[in-house]
Design a protein that fits this description.
Layout (H helix, E strand, L loop, with lengths): L2 H9 L7 E7 L5 H9 L17 E5 L2 E5 L9 H14 L6 E7 L5 H14 L8 E6 L6 H4 L5 H11 L2 H7 L6 E3 L16 H30 L8 H44 L2 H10 L3
Parallel strand pairs: 1-3, 1-4, 4-5, 5-6
Antiparallel strand pairs: 2-3
Keywords: Coiled coil
GO molecular function, one term: GTP binding
Organism: Rotaria socialis
Length: 294
């Protein structure tokens, strides 16, 4: 067993053998909204431009561990992006079972396609497709239950529609039938309106509809989570990250041991020097003579 595998075995208990689900995608694709929905959490939400998720969040709920990741490509700085990729590999280094890869229905640009390719060609490799489920977010059409029901005519028509789009057609087949259409619209805060006012009543009705659509999404995704059991994912980049952390931990332990040795030596030398100084003081010499100190 190499160092990386040893660390993996050591840390498997941290996952409690629960199913591990990672949310992945570009900034503003709806990862945190879905994380909140499925894990019963309340993490702050960002927008399509800037992410509010600045670190990784973990939540175990109903024997499933959910991981909300930082948003990718929300900056033009290439070094920032590479750092996020490294942090991502660090957080998932012990493996995961399912990736929920989120893309916006209305904004699948060339940048989205490039990020998608980077994740599955370079960071995780194509092997990760077997563990992946594609979530097409910001789906606002009324037939959200039908299009997420396998083998329904509405679902087939919608998938055919997406395959007519060159960008979507290039990625849909990788996920086979593991594709869901998600509405993540947020409820309006009714506290902003007077109880019983026209706007209050309007937004109350809208919130009820949003809640109902979220429950439909929750139902379909939980069924998928319950019945989808791929082999836990691992790849060379993750093994490399485990090995780096293992070596770093070893070095840190060695440095701590060296620091203790240096501290002991310094303390011993300080004690000796202090005693030598005392020897040259008249009052000290008197005590040495009386008590026979040497």
């Amino acid at each position: 067993m190499n160092n990386a595998d040893a660390v993996l075995s050591k840390n498997k208990n941290d996952l409690d053998e629960s199913k591990v689900i990672v949310f992945l995608g570009r900034t503003g694709s709806g990862k945190t909204s879905l994380f909140n929905l499925l894990s019963n959490s309340n993490q702050p939400l960002g927008n399509s431009v800037s992410s509010r998720t600045k670190k990784f969040f973990y939540k175990k709920f109903h024997d499933v561990t959910y991981i909300d990741t930082i948003g990718f490509r929300d900056t033009e700085n290439e070094n920032d992006h590479k750092l996020k990729v490294v942090l991502f590999l660090k957080e998932i280094r012990n493996g995961f079972d399912i990736i929920f890869y989120c893309i916006r229905m209305d904004v699948f640009t060339s940048d989205e396609a490039n990020l998608f390719s980077e994740v599955y060609e370079t960071v995780l490799t194509r092997k990760a497709y077997d563990n992946s489920c594609l979530l097409i977010t910001f789906y606002t059409r009324p037939d959200i239950d039908e299009v997420n029901t396998l083998d329904s005519a509405e679902r087939q028509r919608l998938l055919d529609e997406f395959r007519c789009n060159n960008r979507y057609s290039e990625i849909l087949d990788y996920f086979e039938n593991r594709i869901f259409f998600i509405d993540i619209k947020q409820e309006e805060d009714l506290n902003n309106y007077s109880f019983g006012s026209t706007k209050y009543i309007q937004y109350k009705a809208l919130n009820d509809m949003i809640f109902e659509r979220k429950q439909i999404v929750y139902k379909h995704l939980n069924q998928f989570i319950e019945y989808f059991f791929p082999e836990r994912f691992d790849c060379e980049n993750m093994k490399t990250m485990r090995d780096i952390i293992y070596r770093n931990d070893e070095l840190e332990q060695q440095l701590n041991e060296l620091r203790d040795i240096v501290s002991d030596v310094a303390n011993e030398r300080a004690t000796t020097n202090f005693y030598d100084i005392l020897r040259f003081m008249p009052i000290t010499n008197m005590f040495i003579d009386v008590f026979g100190m040497s």
